[in-house]
Amino acid sequence: MCKAYAKKVSLAFFFAAILHPFCALAQNQKTIQPVIRSMADSTIIADAHICIYSRATYQINNDLYLAPASASDPVVYKSNFNSEGKALIALPGHRSDELFRIKVYADNFDTLHITMINASDIEEALYKVFLNPKVMPNDISEMLVDRQQEMNLPLTIEKSIDEYIFDTYDFSKNELTSCDIEIPEKVYVKNLYNGYNNTSCSNTGIFTGYIDFTEYIAGVISREMGGSFHPEALKAQAVAARSYSLARVQKGLPANCGQAYGTSVPQVCLDASQLTSQHVMLYQNTVINASYSARCSGIYTQNAQEGVWNPASTCNTSGNAVPYLVSRPCSGHKDCSQTSEKPCCEVSISTSGQTGFIYGHGVGMCQRGAHDFASAPNNKKWDEILYQYYSHICISAHDSIGETPEEPAPTDPCLNPDNTRKVLCNIKVSPIPATNIINISFENPLQAQAWAYITDFIGHKQIYDISLGNKVETEASINVSHLKYGIYLLVLFTEEAKYSRKIVIMK
Fold first, then answer.
1. Does residue 474 lie within any of the structural domains?
2. Whole domain around residue 125: which residue ranges?
3. pTM: predicted TM-score of the whole model, two decimal places
4. Tens of pLDDT along 24-47?
5. Average pLDDT of the chain, as a whole number
6. How confident is the model at residue 304 (pLDDT cuts 50, 70, 90)?
7. How many CA atoms lie within 13 A of 155 on its CB side?
8. What Rg, from alpha-carbon coordinates, does the chain have?
Protein backbone atom coordinates (compact mmCIF):
# COMPACT_ATOMS: atom_id res chain seq x y z
CA MET A 1 0.00 0.00 0.00
CA CYS A 2 2.86 2.35 0.84
CA LYS A 3 4.38 1.66 -2.56
CA ALA A 4 1.09 2.46 -4.27
CA TYR A 5 0.77 5.68 -2.27
CA ALA A 6 4.33 6.68 -3.10
CA LYS A 7 3.65 6.04 -6.77
CA LYS A 8 0.57 8.27 -6.67
CA VAL A 9 2.55 11.05 -4.97
CA SER A 10 5.32 10.78 -7.56
CA LEU A 11 2.82 11.01 -10.39
CA ALA A 12 1.18 14.03 -8.77
CA PHE A 13 4.52 15.85 -8.54
CA PHE A 14 5.33 14.84 -12.13
CA PHE A 15 2.10 16.31 -13.54
CA ALA A 16 2.45 19.38 -11.33
CA ALA A 17 5.89 20.03 -12.80
CA ILE A 18 4.56 19.62 -16.32
CA LEU A 19 1.53 21.85 -15.79
CA HIS A 20 3.25 24.58 -13.75
CA PRO A 21 4.34 26.76 -16.73
CA PHE A 22 0.84 26.63 -18.20
CA CYS A 23 -0.75 27.53 -14.88
CA ALA A 24 1.65 30.45 -14.53
CA LEU A 25 0.76 31.56 -18.07
CA ALA A 26 -2.95 31.39 -17.26
CA GLN A 27 -2.40 33.48 -14.16
CA ASN A 28 -0.67 36.15 -16.28
CA GLN A 29 -3.63 36.40 -18.63
CA LYS A 30 -6.13 39.22 -18.31
CA THR A 31 -9.63 39.20 -19.74
CA ILE A 32 -11.08 42.31 -21.42
CA GLN A 33 -14.37 43.06 -23.15
CA PRO A 34 -13.82 45.51 -26.04
CA VAL A 35 -16.66 47.17 -27.96
CA ILE A 36 -16.69 47.63 -31.74
CA ARG A 37 -18.48 50.53 -33.45
CA SER A 38 -18.90 52.17 -36.84
CA MET A 39 -16.64 55.16 -37.46
CA ALA A 40 -19.46 56.87 -39.38
CA ASP A 41 -22.10 57.09 -36.63
CA SER A 42 -20.73 55.15 -33.62
CA THR A 43 -23.43 52.46 -33.93
CA ILE A 44 -22.66 48.96 -32.65
CA ILE A 45 -21.24 46.51 -35.20
CA ALA A 46 -22.60 43.02 -34.60
CA ASP A 47 -20.95 39.70 -35.45
CA ALA A 48 -17.46 41.04 -36.14
CA HIS A 49 -14.30 38.96 -35.68
CA ILE A 50 -10.93 39.50 -34.01
CA CYS A 51 -7.66 37.59 -34.30
CA ILE A 52 -4.43 38.18 -32.37
CA TYR A 53 -1.24 36.88 -33.99
CA SER A 54 2.33 36.59 -32.76
CA ARG A 55 4.91 38.41 -34.91
CA ALA A 56 8.24 36.89 -35.80
CA THR A 57 11.50 38.81 -35.27
CA TYR A 58 15.01 37.86 -36.39
CA GLN A 59 18.52 39.21 -36.04
CA ILE A 60 20.25 40.75 -39.08
CA ASN A 61 23.86 41.25 -38.01
CA ASN A 62 23.35 43.26 -34.83
CA ASP A 63 19.93 44.65 -35.76
CA LEU A 64 16.42 43.34 -35.19
CA TYR A 65 14.24 42.49 -38.19
CA LEU A 66 10.45 42.39 -37.90
CA ALA A 67 9.32 39.85 -40.46
CA PRO A 68 6.40 40.87 -42.72
CA ALA A 69 2.93 39.90 -41.54
CA SER A 70 2.03 36.48 -42.90
CA ALA A 71 -0.98 34.17 -42.98
CA SER A 72 1.27 31.61 -41.30
CA ASP A 73 1.80 33.80 -38.20
CA PRO A 74 0.74 31.81 -35.09
CA VAL A 75 -2.77 32.66 -33.87
CA VAL A 76 -2.59 33.54 -30.17
CA TYR A 77 -6.30 34.25 -29.71
CA LYS A 78 -9.41 34.30 -31.87
CA SER A 79 -12.90 35.45 -30.96
CA ASN A 80 -16.17 36.81 -32.32
CA PHE A 81 -18.07 39.93 -31.30
CA ASN A 82 -21.68 39.26 -30.30
CA SER A 83 -24.85 41.05 -31.44
CA GLU A 84 -24.09 43.86 -28.97
CA GLY A 85 -20.68 44.47 -30.52
CA LYS A 86 -18.81 43.00 -27.55
CA ALA A 87 -16.23 40.25 -27.28
CA LEU A 88 -14.58 38.50 -24.34
CA ILE A 89 -10.83 38.33 -24.95
CA ALA A 90 -8.15 36.69 -22.82
CA LEU A 91 -5.01 38.74 -23.34
CA PRO A 92 -1.85 36.76 -24.01
CA GLY A 93 0.59 36.53 -21.12
CA HIS A 94 3.94 36.84 -22.87
CA ARG A 95 7.32 38.51 -22.60
CA SER A 96 7.28 42.30 -22.53
CA ASP A 97 9.47 42.47 -25.65
CA GLU A 98 7.28 40.14 -27.73
CA LEU A 99 5.29 41.76 -30.54
CA PHE A 100 1.81 40.94 -31.82
CA ARG A 101 -0.55 42.06 -34.55
CA ILE A 102 -4.35 42.23 -34.42
CA LYS A 103 -6.93 41.93 -37.18
CA VAL A 104 -10.52 43.13 -36.67
CA TYR A 105 -13.02 42.59 -39.48
CA ALA A 106 -16.76 42.58 -40.23
CA ASP A 107 -18.99 42.35 -43.28
CA ASN A 108 -19.38 45.67 -45.16
CA PHE A 109 -16.60 47.33 -43.13
CA ASP A 110 -12.95 48.01 -43.88
CA THR A 111 -10.67 45.60 -42.02
CA LEU A 112 -8.54 47.17 -39.30
CA HIS A 113 -4.96 45.97 -38.77
CA ILE A 114 -3.08 46.82 -35.58
CA THR A 115 0.28 45.99 -37.06
CA MET A 116 2.68 46.09 -34.13
CA ILE A 117 1.85 46.02 -30.43
CA ASN A 118 3.21 44.78 -27.10
CA ALA A 119 1.06 42.52 -24.91
CA SER A 120 0.85 45.24 -22.26
CA ASP A 121 -0.68 47.70 -24.75
CA ILE A 122 -3.39 45.44 -26.22
CA GLU A 123 -6.00 46.33 -23.60
CA GLU A 124 -5.74 50.05 -24.34
CA ALA A 125 -5.70 49.49 -28.12
CA LEU A 126 -8.89 47.42 -27.96
CA TYR A 127 -10.75 49.56 -25.43
CA LYS A 128 -12.83 51.01 -28.26
CA VAL A 129 -12.53 49.77 -31.82
CA PHE A 130 -13.92 51.71 -34.79
CA LEU A 131 -14.25 50.42 -38.35
CA ASN A 132 -14.89 52.49 -41.47
CA PRO A 133 -17.89 51.44 -43.61
CA LYS A 134 -16.78 50.35 -47.08
CA VAL A 135 -19.52 52.52 -48.60
CA MET A 136 -20.78 55.75 -47.03
CA PRO A 137 -22.46 58.98 -48.17
CA ASN A 138 -20.18 61.76 -49.35
CA ASP A 139 -21.17 64.11 -46.52
CA ILE A 140 -20.21 61.48 -43.93
CA SER A 141 -16.91 60.86 -45.70
CA GLU A 142 -16.12 64.59 -45.72
CA MET A 143 -17.01 64.84 -42.04
CA LEU A 144 -14.64 61.98 -41.19
CA VAL A 145 -11.83 63.54 -43.23
CA ASP A 146 -12.22 66.82 -41.34
CA ARG A 147 -12.46 64.96 -38.02
CA GLN A 148 -9.24 63.08 -38.78
CA GLN A 149 -7.37 66.31 -39.44
CA GLU A 150 -8.76 67.86 -36.28
CA MET A 151 -7.56 64.82 -34.31
CA ASN A 152 -4.13 65.32 -35.88
CA LEU A 153 -3.84 68.83 -34.40
CA PRO A 154 -1.26 67.85 -31.73
CA LEU A 155 0.80 66.13 -34.43
CA THR A 156 0.56 69.27 -36.59
CA ILE A 157 1.82 71.42 -33.74
CA GLU A 158 4.80 69.10 -33.29
CA LYS A 159 5.62 69.43 -36.98
CA SER A 160 5.30 73.20 -36.80
CA ILE A 161 8.07 73.53 -34.22
CA ASP A 162 10.34 70.75 -35.52
CA GLU A 163 13.27 71.80 -37.70
CA TYR A 164 13.18 70.48 -41.25
CA ILE A 165 16.26 70.42 -43.51
CA PHE A 166 16.70 69.03 -47.01
CA ASP A 167 19.01 69.18 -50.02
CA THR A 168 19.14 72.05 -52.50
CA TYR A 169 19.06 71.65 -56.27
CA ASP A 170 20.05 73.80 -59.20
CA PHE A 171 17.23 75.36 -61.18
CA SER A 172 17.49 73.51 -64.46
CA LYS A 173 15.54 71.17 -66.66
CA ASN A 174 14.93 67.75 -65.17
CA GLU A 175 17.34 65.84 -67.40
CA LEU A 176 16.67 62.20 -66.59
CA THR A 177 18.68 59.32 -67.98
CA SER A 178 16.40 56.78 -66.32
CA CYS A 179 13.20 56.72 -64.33
CA ASP A 180 14.00 53.31 -62.85
CA ILE A 181 15.18 52.71 -59.32
CA GLU A 182 15.45 49.70 -57.04
CA ILE A 183 13.18 50.03 -54.03
CA PRO A 184 14.26 47.99 -50.97
CA GLU A 185 11.91 45.46 -49.41
CA LYS A 186 12.85 46.50 -45.87
CA VAL A 187 14.08 49.75 -44.32
CA TYR A 188 15.74 50.69 -41.04
CA VAL A 189 13.69 52.66 -38.52
CA LYS A 190 14.88 54.19 -35.26
CA ASN A 191 12.66 54.57 -32.19
CA LEU A 192 9.59 54.02 -34.37
CA TYR A 193 6.89 55.95 -32.57
CA ASN A 194 3.10 55.73 -32.75
CA GLY A 195 2.69 59.43 -33.58
CA TYR A 196 5.00 62.07 -35.02
CA ASN A 197 8.58 60.81 -35.34
CA ASN A 198 10.66 63.96 -34.98
CA THR A 199 13.52 64.74 -37.35
CA SER A 200 16.12 63.68 -34.78
CA CYS A 201 14.42 60.30 -34.12
CA SER A 202 14.64 60.97 -30.38
CA ASN A 203 11.13 59.72 -29.56
CA THR A 204 10.69 56.80 -27.18
CA GLY A 205 9.51 54.31 -29.77
CA ILE A 206 8.19 50.77 -29.84
CA PHE A 207 10.72 49.38 -32.33
CA THR A 208 14.23 49.94 -33.68
CA GLY A 209 15.46 47.78 -36.52
CA TYR A 210 14.36 46.69 -39.98
CA ILE A 211 10.72 46.65 -41.04
CA ASP A 212 8.92 45.76 -44.26
CA PHE A 213 8.86 48.95 -46.37
CA THR A 214 5.28 48.42 -47.57
CA GLU A 215 4.05 47.90 -44.02
CA TYR A 216 5.89 51.01 -42.83
CA ILE A 217 4.38 53.21 -45.56
CA ALA A 218 0.89 51.87 -44.75
CA GLY A 219 1.42 53.09 -41.18
CA VAL A 220 2.49 56.52 -42.42
CA ILE A 221 -0.61 56.80 -44.64
CA SER A 222 -2.87 55.79 -41.76
CA ARG A 223 -1.44 58.38 -39.36
CA GLU A 224 -0.99 61.18 -41.89
CA MET A 225 -4.38 60.79 -43.60
CA GLY A 226 -6.52 57.95 -42.29
CA GLY A 227 -8.94 55.50 -43.84
CA SER A 228 -11.66 58.06 -44.63
CA PHE A 229 -9.64 59.81 -47.35
CA HIS A 230 -10.27 59.00 -51.01
CA PRO A 231 -8.30 55.89 -52.13
CA GLU A 232 -6.55 57.85 -54.91
CA ALA A 233 -5.43 60.48 -52.39
CA LEU A 234 -4.12 57.67 -50.17
CA LYS A 235 -2.10 56.29 -53.09
CA ALA A 236 -0.64 59.74 -53.76
CA GLN A 237 0.26 59.99 -50.06
CA ALA A 238 1.91 56.55 -50.27
CA VAL A 239 4.17 57.63 -53.13
CA ALA A 240 5.04 60.92 -51.42
CA ALA A 241 5.85 59.18 -48.11
CA ARG A 242 7.84 56.44 -49.84
CA SER A 243 9.85 59.05 -51.76
CA TYR A 244 10.56 61.00 -48.59
CA SER A 245 11.63 57.84 -46.74
CA LEU A 246 13.77 56.44 -49.55
CA ALA A 247 15.58 59.77 -49.93
CA ARG A 248 16.60 59.39 -46.27
CA VAL A 249 17.51 55.71 -46.62
CA GLN A 250 19.83 56.49 -49.55
CA LYS A 251 21.78 58.82 -47.24
CA GLY A 252 22.14 56.10 -44.61
CA LEU A 253 19.50 57.65 -42.34
CA PRO A 254 16.51 56.00 -40.60
CA ALA A 255 13.41 56.03 -42.80
CA ASN A 256 10.94 57.26 -40.20
CA CYS A 257 12.36 60.53 -38.85
CA GLY A 258 10.23 63.57 -39.79
CA GLN A 259 7.05 61.60 -40.55
CA ALA A 260 4.03 60.49 -38.57
CA TYR A 261 3.39 56.78 -38.12
CA GLY A 262 0.48 54.77 -36.80
CA THR A 263 0.06 51.11 -35.91
CA SER A 264 -3.74 51.12 -36.44
CA VAL A 265 -3.99 50.65 -40.20
CA PRO A 266 -7.28 50.35 -42.12
CA GLN A 267 -7.17 47.93 -45.05
CA VAL A 268 -7.61 50.78 -47.55
CA CYS A 269 -4.30 52.30 -46.33
CA LEU A 270 -2.53 48.95 -46.64
CA ASP A 271 -3.95 48.57 -50.15
CA ALA A 272 -2.69 52.04 -51.14
CA SER A 273 0.82 51.11 -50.03
CA GLN A 274 0.80 47.72 -51.73
CA LEU A 275 -0.60 49.04 -55.03
CA THR A 276 2.11 51.72 -55.29
CA SER A 277 5.00 49.72 -53.81
CA GLN A 278 7.29 50.31 -56.82
CA HIS A 279 6.58 54.02 -57.22
CA VAL A 280 8.69 56.94 -56.02
CA MET A 281 9.26 60.41 -57.50
CA LEU A 282 12.59 61.41 -59.04
CA TYR A 283 14.15 64.69 -60.13
CA GLN A 284 17.51 64.75 -61.94
CA ASN A 285 17.86 60.99 -61.36
CA THR A 286 17.48 61.45 -57.60
CA VAL A 287 14.60 60.47 -55.33
CA ILE A 288 13.00 63.71 -54.18
CA ASN A 289 12.43 64.84 -50.62
CA ALA A 290 8.67 64.76 -51.16
CA SER A 291 7.30 67.08 -48.53
CA TYR A 292 3.59 67.34 -47.80
CA SER A 293 1.31 69.16 -45.38
CA ALA A 294 -2.20 68.72 -44.02
CA ARG A 295 -3.80 71.76 -45.64
CA CYS A 296 -2.76 74.85 -47.50
CA SER A 297 -4.40 77.98 -46.20
CA GLY A 298 -5.25 79.94 -49.30
CA ILE A 299 -5.65 78.89 -52.91
CA TYR A 300 -1.96 78.09 -53.43
CA THR A 301 0.74 75.96 -51.90
CA GLN A 302 4.00 77.78 -51.32
CA ASN A 303 7.42 77.87 -52.95
CA ALA A 304 10.08 76.01 -50.95
CA GLN A 305 12.44 79.00 -50.96
CA GLU A 306 9.97 81.11 -49.01
CA GLY A 307 11.20 80.11 -45.58
CA VAL A 308 8.91 77.22 -44.73
CA TRP A 309 11.71 74.85 -43.78
CA ASN A 310 12.68 76.66 -40.63
CA PRO A 311 11.11 75.91 -37.25
CA ALA A 312 8.30 78.28 -36.39
CA SER A 313 10.07 79.39 -33.23
CA THR A 314 12.85 81.12 -35.18
CA CYS A 315 10.68 83.21 -37.53
CA ASN A 316 13.51 82.90 -40.02
CA THR A 317 12.32 83.60 -43.56
CA SER A 318 15.43 82.48 -45.42
CA GLY A 319 15.07 79.29 -47.43
CA ASN A 320 16.36 77.07 -50.21
CA ALA A 321 15.16 77.00 -53.79
CA VAL A 322 13.84 73.61 -54.86
CA PRO A 323 12.57 73.43 -58.45
CA TYR A 324 10.06 70.61 -57.89
CA LEU A 325 8.46 72.46 -54.95
CA VAL A 326 6.85 75.55 -56.42
CA SER A 327 3.59 77.36 -55.85
CA ARG A 328 0.57 75.33 -56.97
CA PRO A 329 -3.22 75.60 -56.57
CA CYS A 330 -4.01 73.90 -53.27
CA SER A 331 -7.37 72.29 -53.91
CA GLY A 332 -9.49 70.81 -56.62
CA HIS A 333 -11.77 73.82 -56.88
CA LYS A 334 -11.17 77.10 -58.67
CA ASP A 335 -13.01 78.93 -55.92
CA CYS A 336 -11.64 77.99 -52.54
CA SER A 337 -14.88 79.02 -50.88
CA GLN A 338 -16.55 76.02 -52.51
CA THR A 339 -14.41 73.56 -50.58
CA SER A 340 -14.65 72.40 -47.01
CA GLU A 341 -11.13 73.60 -46.34
CA LYS A 342 -11.31 75.89 -43.35
CA PRO A 343 -9.94 78.45 -42.84
CA CYS A 344 -8.69 78.14 -46.42
CA CYS A 345 -11.90 79.83 -47.49
CA GLU A 346 -11.05 82.88 -45.41
CA VAL A 347 -7.86 83.63 -47.33
CA SER A 348 -7.45 85.10 -50.79
CA ILE A 349 -3.68 84.94 -51.20
CA SER A 350 -0.61 83.11 -49.99
CA THR A 351 2.14 85.57 -49.23
CA SER A 352 5.70 85.54 -50.44
CA GLY A 353 8.35 85.21 -47.76
CA GLN A 354 5.99 83.93 -45.07
CA THR A 355 4.61 80.51 -44.26
CA GLY A 356 0.96 81.56 -44.10
CA PHE A 357 -0.35 78.04 -43.58
CA ILE A 358 -2.41 76.73 -40.70
CA TYR A 359 -1.82 73.01 -41.15
CA GLY A 360 1.81 72.02 -41.56
CA HIS A 361 4.33 73.93 -43.61
CA GLY A 362 2.30 74.32 -46.80
CA VAL A 363 4.89 73.06 -49.29
CA GLY A 364 4.50 70.10 -51.63
CA MET A 365 1.33 68.03 -51.58
CA CYS A 366 -1.64 69.41 -49.67
CA GLN A 367 -3.36 66.38 -48.12
CA ARG A 368 -6.83 67.93 -47.91
CA GLY A 369 -6.46 69.28 -51.42
CA ALA A 370 -5.38 65.84 -52.66
CA HIS A 371 -8.63 64.42 -51.28
CA ASP A 372 -10.60 67.11 -53.12
CA PHE A 373 -8.74 66.44 -56.38
CA ALA A 374 -9.54 62.72 -56.08
CA SER A 375 -13.21 63.27 -55.24
CA ALA A 376 -16.05 64.18 -57.62
CA PRO A 377 -16.31 66.21 -59.76
CA ASN A 378 -12.49 66.27 -60.24
CA ASN A 379 -11.95 62.48 -60.13
CA LYS A 380 -8.17 62.70 -60.54
CA LYS A 381 -5.99 59.59 -60.22
CA TRP A 382 -3.07 59.38 -57.82
CA ASP A 383 -0.45 60.21 -60.45
CA GLU A 384 -2.40 63.26 -61.66
CA ILE A 385 -2.54 64.49 -58.07
CA LEU A 386 1.23 64.15 -57.72
CA TYR A 387 1.85 66.00 -61.00
CA GLN A 388 -0.38 68.77 -59.66
CA TYR A 389 1.77 69.31 -56.58
CA TYR A 390 5.31 68.33 -57.65
CA SER A 391 6.78 70.01 -60.72
CA HIS A 392 8.85 68.28 -63.41
CA ILE A 393 9.09 64.97 -61.57
CA CYS A 394 9.25 61.44 -62.94
CA ILE A 395 7.47 58.50 -61.25
CA SER A 396 9.41 55.23 -61.19
CA ALA A 397 7.87 52.11 -62.78
CA HIS A 398 5.26 54.42 -64.26
CA ASP A 399 6.72 57.12 -66.53
CA SER A 400 8.97 56.86 -69.55
CA ILE A 401 11.53 59.56 -70.22
CA GLY A 402 9.88 62.54 -71.84
CA GLU A 403 6.34 61.38 -71.07
CA THR A 404 5.77 63.40 -67.91
CA PRO A 405 2.63 65.50 -68.52
CA GLU A 406 2.89 69.22 -69.15
CA GLU A 407 2.23 71.20 -66.01
CA PRO A 408 0.91 74.70 -65.40
CA ALA A 409 3.56 77.35 -64.94
CA PRO A 410 4.50 78.15 -61.34
CA THR A 411 2.31 80.87 -59.89
CA ASP A 412 3.35 83.71 -57.63
CA PRO A 413 0.20 84.24 -55.54
CA CYS A 414 1.59 87.53 -54.27
CA LEU A 415 1.26 89.19 -57.68
CA ASN A 416 -1.82 90.88 -59.08
CA PRO A 417 -2.93 89.99 -62.64
CA ASP A 418 -0.90 92.96 -63.93
CA ASN A 419 2.24 91.53 -62.22
CA THR A 420 2.29 94.26 -59.59
CA ARG A 421 2.97 93.36 -55.99
CA LYS A 422 -0.06 92.91 -53.73
CA VAL A 423 -0.45 95.19 -50.73
CA LEU A 424 -0.08 92.70 -47.88
CA CYS A 425 2.94 90.64 -48.82
CA ASN A 426 6.10 91.50 -46.94
CA ILE A 427 4.93 90.99 -43.37
CA LYS A 428 6.60 89.25 -40.44
CA VAL A 429 4.86 87.87 -37.35
CA SER A 430 6.67 87.04 -34.10
CA PRO A 431 7.19 85.30 -31.79
CA ILE A 432 6.07 81.91 -33.08
CA PRO A 433 5.20 80.06 -30.87
CA ALA A 434 3.58 82.89 -28.92
CA THR A 435 2.23 83.12 -25.37
CA ASN A 436 0.73 86.54 -24.68
CA ILE A 437 1.50 89.03 -27.47
CA ILE A 438 1.77 88.71 -31.26
CA ASN A 439 3.97 91.35 -32.91
CA ILE A 440 3.38 92.29 -36.55
CA SER A 441 6.07 93.99 -38.66
CA PHE A 442 5.40 95.64 -42.04
CA GLU A 443 8.19 96.26 -44.53
CA ASN A 444 6.50 99.52 -45.51
CA PRO A 445 3.79 101.54 -43.74
CA LEU A 446 0.30 100.67 -44.98
CA GLN A 447 -1.39 103.65 -46.57
CA ALA A 448 -4.86 102.24 -45.90
CA GLN A 449 -7.34 101.20 -43.23
CA ALA A 450 -6.38 97.75 -41.92
CA TRP A 451 -8.04 95.18 -39.66
CA ALA A 452 -7.06 91.87 -38.08
CA TYR A 453 -8.78 88.81 -36.65
CA ILE A 454 -7.75 85.35 -35.45
CA THR A 455 -9.55 82.05 -36.09
CA ASP A 456 -9.08 78.60 -34.61
CA PHE A 457 -8.04 75.65 -36.77
CA ILE A 458 -11.59 75.01 -38.01
CA GLY A 459 -12.29 78.62 -38.97
CA HIS A 460 -14.18 79.93 -35.93
CA LYS A 461 -13.19 83.46 -34.97
CA GLN A 462 -11.50 83.69 -31.57
CA ILE A 463 -10.50 87.34 -31.82
CA TYR A 464 -12.91 89.42 -33.86
CA ASP A 465 -12.12 92.28 -36.23
CA ILE A 466 -9.62 94.65 -34.65
CA SER A 467 -8.99 97.98 -36.32
CA LEU A 468 -5.31 98.69 -36.83
CA GLY A 469 -6.04 102.29 -37.79
CA ASN A 470 -6.35 104.36 -40.94
CA LYS A 471 -2.61 104.38 -41.50
CA VAL A 472 -0.65 101.49 -40.02
CA GLU A 473 3.00 102.22 -39.29
CA THR A 474 5.66 99.52 -39.50
CA GLU A 475 4.60 97.68 -36.33
CA ALA A 476 1.44 96.54 -34.53
CA SER A 477 0.62 94.03 -31.78
CA ILE A 478 -2.31 91.85 -30.68
CA ASN A 479 -2.98 90.44 -27.20
CA VAL A 480 -3.49 86.66 -27.42
CA SER A 481 -3.09 85.82 -23.72
CA HIS A 482 -6.61 84.37 -23.46
CA LEU A 483 -6.14 81.90 -26.33
CA LYS A 484 -5.58 78.26 -25.39
CA TYR A 485 -2.72 76.03 -26.54
CA GLY A 486 -3.13 75.23 -30.23
CA ILE A 487 -2.78 76.36 -33.84
CA TYR A 488 -4.58 79.47 -35.06
CA LEU A 489 -4.73 81.66 -38.14
CA LEU A 490 -3.98 85.37 -38.03
CA VAL A 491 -5.69 87.28 -40.84
CA LEU A 492 -4.82 90.88 -41.73
CA PHE A 493 -6.87 92.63 -44.37
CA THR A 494 -7.57 95.91 -46.11
CA GLU A 495 -10.23 96.70 -48.68
CA GLU A 496 -7.85 95.47 -51.38
CA ALA A 497 -6.05 92.43 -49.98
CA LYS A 498 -5.77 89.79 -47.28
CA TYR A 499 -2.79 88.22 -45.56
CA SER A 500 -2.83 85.02 -43.49
CA ARG A 501 -0.25 83.57 -41.14
CA LYS A 502 -0.27 80.42 -39.05
CA ILE A 503 0.44 81.09 -35.38
CA VAL A 504 1.13 78.57 -32.63
CA ILE A 505 0.08 79.39 -29.06
CA MET A 506 2.06 77.65 -26.32
CA LYS A 507 1.07 77.85 -22.64
1. yes
2. 30-135
3. 0.70
4. 334 455 678 888 999 999 999 999
5. 74
6. very low
7. 21
8. 26
